[in-house]
Design brief:
It contains three helices and eleven strands. The chain is mainly beta. The chain has a domain of about 200 residues. The strands form two sheets. Strands 3, 4, 5, 6, 7, 8, 9, 10 and 11 form a nine-stranded mixed beta sheet that branches. Strand 9, helix 3 and strand 10 form a beta-alpha-beta unit. The longest helix has 14 residues. It is globular, with a radius of gyration of 27 Å.
């Protein structure tokens, strides 16, 4: 019962008003001496990394979670796989994630930082038949992380967030039959019947002056960036032939980014899409 009452307080943040937790006297003296010792108007402002004060409130860490998983595996089968005896005859593909780690850190003012790291991501074709190319996405041939996601969100009255996704050396080698099998697997969960759907469009309400009232949303600005390094995509003509012809697309580096901003008076969002590359279509 004590845990059920204290755990929700972590996600709710620090209490406000008279119930706000006060800084211990000894720790407060240490912080004050540290600020007095290193206070210099000409010095570089290192906030918020080193100065954990927000106004008159001392920020504290409310959650620091680290989760590591060695391996995660997922194997898909078609609808004809009904027992363990016939699983091998009805396989589709196998996915494997190696050396996975997730870290989440939250502060009392609502700021948050999350990091997801995957050392290696592999995908194999498990369909029956004499296929000569089983590895659709082989294991990375380097010591770097193959997949990294970093998400940061600031706290306070005007929060903003940023997400950075980096994928290193995604090499993909496939033929069309495994792709069609995956599409059929995921689309089987949706109803594809041609049922009639009525769409009702409501006109915006007008005020007394005749001007349309456009609803405003209080969404926080969100920016993201996607970086892909050493991309290679090969489409095989026939995966049963070891000397099959293929179409290969290679990209040295590609980057997508969007920057969003919100003005204080009128909610507005602008997006900037940048696309650049250095070596494109080296071989076809």
């Amino acid at each position: 019962m004590a845990l059920s009452q204290s755990i929700p307080l972590i996600f709710a943040g620090a209490p406000e008003g008279p119930a706000q937790a006060e800084l211990p006297t000894a720790e407060q003296r240490i912080v004050e001496r540290s600020h007095a010792k290193y206070h210099d108007e000409s010095a570089v402002d290192l906030r918020p990394e080193l100065d954990r004060r927000s106004g008159d409130t001392f920020l504290r860490t409310t959650l620091d979670l680290v989760l590591t998983v060695a391996t995660v595996k997922l194997q898909l089968y078609d609808r004809q796989a009904t027992s363990e005896t016939n699983l091998k005859e009805h396989g589709i593909s196998r996915f494997a994630l190696s050396d996975n780690s997730v870290r989440v850190k939250m502060l009392s003012d609502g700021a948050m930082e999350a990091q997801v790291v995957l050392r290696s991501f592999t995908m194999s074709n498990t369909a029956p038949g004499p296929s000569k190319f089983r590895e659709i996405i082989p294991a990375a041939q380097h010591d770097r992380n193959q997949f990294m996601l970093l998400y940061t969100a600031s706290g306070g009255s005007e929060p903003s967030s940023l997400a950075v996704l980096t994928v290193d050396s995604p090499h993909i080698l496939f033929s069309l039959p495994p792709v069609f099998a995956l599409m059929e697997f995921f689309m089987s969960a949706f109803d594809t019947s041609n049922a009639a759907v009525d769409y009702i469009v409501e006109a915006p309400k007008t005020s007394e002056e005749g001007k349309a009232n456009i609803p405003t949303t209080g969404q926080t600005p969100f920016s993201f960036r996607i970086d892909l390094h050493d991309v290679s995509i090969s489409v095989l003509e026939d995966d049963l032939d070891p000397e099959s012809q293929a179409i290969r697309l290679t990209i040295d580096q590609i980057s997508f980014s969007q920057q969003a901003s919100v003005f204080p008076s009128i909610p507005h969002q602008t997006s900037l899409l940048t696309f650049w590359y250095r070596k494109f279509l080296r071989s076809l």
